[in-house]
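Reopening this ticket.

The earlier resolution said the output was attached, but the attachment link was broken on my side. Pasting everything inline this time so it's all in one place.
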Amino acid sequence: MAEPLGLATAIGSLISYAYKISKTTYEAIDGIRKAPKHLSFISDDLKVFYSNLGTLYGYLSEDDTATGVLHPAVSLELKDVLRNCIAIVEELKAFINEYTKDEATGSAAKWHYAQWPWKEKEVTRLREHFSTNKMTLSCVISSINL
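Inline output:
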């Protein structure tokens, strides 16, 4: 059985990293001029995920709810879901950076539509996978409240 302090540290680290990367990714998407609607939907998904992470971190910070987060059945599921979400957000972030790099300044700029049709299905797949994991995370948060 996992040690509670080690478990809390591991989950807290995952939450913290997911919180940071989801925020920088949705901010990058929101900063793109003339971005496709798919990206706006992903930004909205990331904002909900970001909010859920804040709730989860709050639960982990409170003594009375931390025991729910650290319950072995919940914590194992939570670690897997967080890792999956982080991997998806990292992939989305790399994808967005690839398509928005301005050659002159190196910063996010106008969306390059010419390249978009080649990756649209991949982005849709990532969004669906992310939504599934986000829903699982919501269920885990709900179970903590029981």
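Reporter confirms the inline version is readable. Helices lie at 4-30, 37-61, 63-69, 72-100, 116-145. The two ends are 22 Å apart (CA to CA).
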